[in-house]
Input
Amino acid sequence: MILVTLHSQEPVPVELPEQLTLYDLRSGPDLLWPASLLRLALDTEVIPLLVRLDDPDVNVESDPDARQQLSYFICAVWQAYPEKF
Output
């Protein structure tokens, strides 16, 4: 799993790496998530992120920063959509 955060309020294409921070959560826990909070991702959205995840020149955050960001993300979603949980 990858968690991606934006450094901008505007939608940014994946081609602008300075606007994105990747968190490598592949060794993290699995999540059960309500299907109503998911959306399908196009391959053109995901493949560039997967390529960047394994690029040694890209700064990818891993433990413990990644786990902390995942915790923040989960808390934010729980607070925004309490009726879904």
